[in-house]
Automatic annotation (TrEMBL):
This is L-threonine dehydratase. The keyword Acetylation does not apply. One of its GO terms (molecular function) is L-serine ammonia-lyase activity. PROSITE patterns: ACT_LIKE, DEHYDRATASE_SER_THR. Homotetramer. It catalyses: L-threonine = 2-oxobutanoate + NH4(+). PANTHER family: THREONINE DEHYDRATASE, MITOCHONDRIAL, THREONINE DEHYDRATASE, MITOCHONDRIAL-RELATED. Pathway: Amino-acid biosynthesis; L-isoleucine biosynthesis; 2-oxobutanoate from L-threonine: step 1/1. It comes from Vreelandella zhuhanensis. The gene is ilvA.
Length: 504
C-alpha cells in the first residue's frame, strides 16, 4: 500500500490549480526553542488552505460522464472552497451543502468561486445527509474531504515539496489532524523516502479522533467534538487515511485551546500571517514536543494548513494567547474587606504585573477578587506566586485552567443576587443562527425562571452561553432530561468554584 500511495502522490495533478508554497523560517521561535523551526505555508494557496490539492486531484480522476453530471460535497469550511475552485477551473457544476451555522465569510467565499451553496441543518451530519439525498436525485459525484485515496495523494504533495525544499537534515514534521487526509499523504511519502524523519500528528484535545483510534487499535467515534479549531473538528478518523498512516506515524500530540491561540500569535510574529486555529495546530504541537522532550539543535517543520479565519475571532484568540504561553495566571483571591487591602495584596506580589482585576462589594468581612498576574512560562513561576500568597495567609484558588472562569466569569466577576435563592448553572454551545435562543427558551418548562444569562460572540460556528435557571424542586432531577431534548452541548457548572466565589 505504501508504494502504491507514493506512486499516486507522484502522479497527482495538483499543480494545475495549487501552488508550490514556500517554507518560511521562524527566527524568533527558533531562537526561543533552540531548534531550527520552519513553517510550510499552505495558508498561501489560492483558497488559503491545502484543501485545493486533494479536491483538484480527485476531480482530475473523474470521467467525462461524471464531470457532466456535476460534483457535490458537504462541508463547512476549507474543503468547500477547494472544491468550488477546482470545479470552476474544470468548468464543472459544483454544489456545496453547508450547515446553516457556517460563518458568512465562508459561504461568500464558496459562492464567489462559482459553486451553488445550499444551507441545510444546524450541524455537519444534517448537511451530509442532505448531500447524499441530492446524489440520489441528480446523480452528482461526491467528492469526500479526506476519506479517499486520490484526496490523500493530492495532500501528500505537501510532503513532496517539503523534502525537495529542504534537502538537509530534517528531524520531524508536525501535521494538523482532522479526518487524516493530510497526515496520511505526508506520512506515506516521507516514510517511503526518508524513514528517519519523524511524522507527528497534532490534534485539538477536544477532537482527538486519531489519538483515540491509535489507543484503541481501530477507528472510534468520539461522543462529542469541540469546535474551536473547526477545521479539524472531526468525530472519526477516515478509514483510508487510518489504514495508510497507523503504522507510519511516530506519535500524536494533543493541545489546548490556549496553546493553539499562542501558536496563532507565534506564526504572526515570525511571518506576519494570520493563521486559522486549525492551521496553527501543528506549531502548538511542535512547541509542546520541544518542551516535553527537551530536544535542541534539531530541524523541525510544522504545516500551517490554512488562514480562513473570521476577523472577529481575533479578539478572543488574543485574549487567550497569554494563557496559552503560560505568561498569565488567573486567580481568585480572598482579601479582607477594608481600606488598604488591595495595596497590601499588590505589595505581597512584589513587582509582578497585575493584568486584570475584578471586584465587587459582597459583605463586610471578605472580598473575593478576580485577578490576572503576569508570570514566566513553564508553570514553576505560577506555582511560586500561589505559594507566596498562601504563605501570606491568603485564600487562593487557581483558575488558570478553568474554562468557565476564562470564558465568562472574567467578564461577570462580582455580580451576585442581593438575596439568597437556588439556581442551576449550565454552560452551553448555541449554534450561531437566528432562532437559536428562541428554540432554547421555548423548550424549557414555562415555570423555570432564567436568573442569569451571559453570551459572548467569538466569530465561530457556535456561541458560548452561560445560563442560570431557577428550577422548581420537583424538576431538579429532570433538568438534564429537558436539556437533552434541545440538542445543544452543555456542561453543568453549579459546583464550579469560580461560580461559587463570584456569582452565587
Amino acid at each position: 500500500m505504501l508504494e502504491a500511495t507514493v506512486k499516486k502522490i507522484l502522479q497527482s495533478r495538483v499543480y494545475e490549480a495549487a501552488w508550490e508554497t514556500p517554507m518560511s523560517p521562524a527566527p524568533f521561535l527558533s531562537r526561543r526553542f533552540d531548534n531550527q523551526i520552519l513553517i510550510k505555508r499552505e495558508d498561501l494557496q489560492p483558497v488559503y488552505s491545502f484543501k485545493i490539492r486533494g479536491a483538484y486531484n480527485k476531480m482530475a480522476q473523474l470521467s467525462e460522464e461524471q464531470k457532466a453530471k456535476g460534483v457535490i460535497a458537504a462541508s463547512a469550511g476549507n474543503h468547500a472552497q477547494g472544491l468550488a475552485m477546482a470545479a470552476k477551473l474544470m468548468g464543472v457544476k459544483a454544489v456545496i451543502v453547508m450547515p446553516r451555522i457556517t460563518p458568512d465569510i465562508k459561504v461568500a467565499a464558496v459562492r464567489a468561486r462559482g459553486a451553488k451553496v445550499i444551507l441545510k441543518g444546524d450541524a455537519f451530519a444534517e448537511a451530509s445527509e442532505h448531500a447524499q439525498q441530492l446524489i440520489k436525485e441528480h446523480g452528482y459525484t461526491y467528492i469526500p474531504p479526506f476519506d479517499d485515496i486520490d484526496v490523500v495523494a493530492g495532500q501528500g504533495t505537501v510532503a513532496m515539496e517539503i523534502l525537495r525544499q529542504h534537502s538537509g537534515p530534517l528531524d520531524a514534521i508536525f501535521v494538523p489532524v482532522g479526518g487524516g487526509g493530510l497526515i496520511a499523504g505526508v506520512a506515506a511519502y516521507v516514510k517511503y523516502l526518508r524513514p528517519d524523519i519523524k511524522v507527528i500528528g497534532v490534534e485539538a484535545e477536544d477532537s482527538a479522533c486519531l489519538k483515540a483510534a491509535m489507543e484503541a487499535g481501530e477507528r472510534v467515534v468520539l461522543d462529542q467534538v469541540g469546535v474551536f479549531a473547526e477545521g479539524v473538528a472531526v468525530a472519526q478518523i477516515g478509514e483510508i487515511p487510518f489504514s495508510i498512516m497507523r503504522d507510519l506515524i511516530d506519535g500524536v500530540i494533543t493541545v489546548t485551546t490556549d496553546e493553539i491561540c499562542a501558536a496563532v500569535k507565534d506564526i504572526f510574529e515570525d511571518t506576519r500571517a494570520v493563521s486559522e486555529t486549525s492551521g496553527a495546530l501543528s506549531l502548538a504541537g511542535l512547541k509542546k514536543y520541544v518542551q516535553q522532550t527537551g530536544v535542541k539543535g534539531q530541524t523541525l517543520v510544522c504545516i500551517n494548513s490554512g488562514a480562513n479565519t473570521n476577523f472577529d475571532r481575533l479578539q478572543h484568540i488574543a485574549e487567550r494567547t497569554e494563557l496559552g504561553e503560560q505568561r498569565e495566571a488567573i486567580l481568585a483571591v480572598t482579601i479582607a474587606e477594608k481600606p488598604g487591602s488591595f495595596k497590601k495584596f499588590c505589595r505581597t506580589l512584589g513587582k509582578r504585573m497585575v493584568t486584570e482585576f475584578s471586584y465587587r462589594y459582597a459583605d463586610t468581612d471578605d472580598a473575593h477578587i478576580f485577578v490576572g498576574i503576569q508570570v514566566k512560562p513553564g508553570g514553576e513561576d505560577r506555582q511560586a506566586v500561589l505559594t507566596k500568597l498562601r504563605e501570606a495567609d491568603y485564600d487562593v484558588e487557581d483558575l488558570t485552567d478553568n474554562e468557565l472562569a476564562k470564558l465568562h466569569i472574567r467578564h461577570l466577576a462580582g455580580g451576585r443576587p442581593c438575596e439568597e435563592f437556588t439556581e442551576e448553572l449550565y454552560r452551553f454551545e448555541f449554534p450561531e443562527r437566528p432562532g437559536a435562543l428562541m428554540n432554547f427558551l421555548t423548550r424549557l418548562p414555562h415555570n423555570w425562571n432564567i436568573s442569569l444569562f451571559h453570551y459572548r460572540n467569538h466569530g465561530a460556528a457556535y456561541g458560548r452561553v452561560l445560563v442560570g435557571m431557577q428550577v422548581p424542586n420537583g424538576d431538579r432531577v429532570h433538568v438534564e432530561d429537558y436539556l437533552d431534548t434541545i440538542g445543544y452541548r452543555y456542561w453543568k457548572e453549579s459546583d464550579n468554584p469560580a461560580y461559587r466565589l463570584f456569582m452565587a
